[in-house]
Write a structure and sequence with these properties.
Elements (H helix, E strand, L loop, with lengths): L1 H23 L4 H23 L8 H24 L3 H25 L1 H21 L1 H8 L2 H12 L1 H9 L7 H27 L7 H20 L1
Helix pairs in contact: 1-5, 1-7, 1-8, 2-5, 2-9, 2-10, 3-4, 3-9, 4-5, 4-8, 4-9, 6-7
Length: about 230
């Protein structure tokens, strides 16, 4: 568990660094679109090459049950996010997302250190984007830059909390590890298809370069995996 918590310091630090950078200069919409595409490619690669292979040749009942649980929970989160018209409601939805990311990270470390490390790299980029994207809303709510940084840190700390709750899955047996890995796979795919890529394609921000960045993220993480 200590190793898992140690690795969660990377995404937490990335969130604070992203928020600090955005307080001084907010990236433009096209830049954010490129970041979204690249991050989506990295997370999709982690899901496809690290999490998915761990589900093969295991109980299909566990895979289907975990997947259905993930789909149901993601649909509930999406429904709540659409209903949350206020900025505070949006931040609560983001906090839930980050907590679930932490759960998935803890489950990934339970499946193996390599899987956990690869997912840490992917989620670090996602949390960096979080720090960049929520600054404007927090600044209008809180005013002070120091309060904004503290709020971002508080949201980011939900990730190690989730990771601590996810790590003990390793002691529950093969069925439940497979169940939660399937749940984690659905959560990652939801993050890519319903959040990152949706944001990347909003308005007129989509460009061929953005599409290329998606595949660049995928290939770069794959090369890193081969190196490790």
């Amino acid at each position: 568990m200590f190793l898992t918590l140690l690795y969660t310091l990377f995404p937490v630090s990335a969130a604070i660094a992203g928020a600090g950078a955005a307080l001084f200069r907010q990236p433009g919409e096209k830049t954010m679109s490129l970041i979204h595409h690249f991050t989506a490619g990295v997370i999709f690669c982690a899901a496809a090459t690290e999490v998915l292979p761990g589900l093969k040749q295991h109980s299909m009942l566990a895979v289907v049950s975990g997947g259905m649980t993930g789909v149901a929970l993601m649909m509930l989160i999406q429904h709540y996010g659409e209903k949350a018209a206020s900025k505070s409601g949006m931040l609560i939805a983001i906090g839930i997302d980050i907590f679930i990311d932490g759960l998935v990270l803890g489950i990934s470390f339970a499946a193996g250190a390599r899987t956990g490390i690869m997912l840490t790299l992917a989620l670090t980029l996602e949390i960096l984007f979080l720090g960049l994207s929520v600054v404007d809303d927090l600044k209008s709510m809180l005013g002070s830059k120091v309060k904004v940084l503290l709020a971002v840190a508080g949201i980011a700390l939900l990730l190690p909390i989730g990771a601590m709750l996810g790590t003990p899955v390793a002691h529950l047996g093969e069925f439940w590890l497979t169940y939660f890995l399937s749940f984690g796979l659905v959560a990652l795919l939801y993050l890519v298809t319903e959040e990152l890529l949706v944001e990347a394609h909003q308005g007129d921000r989509d460009t061929p370069l953005g599409t290329a960045m998606f595949f660049a993220g995928f290939m770069i993480l794959m090369l890193i995996e081969e190196g490790i």
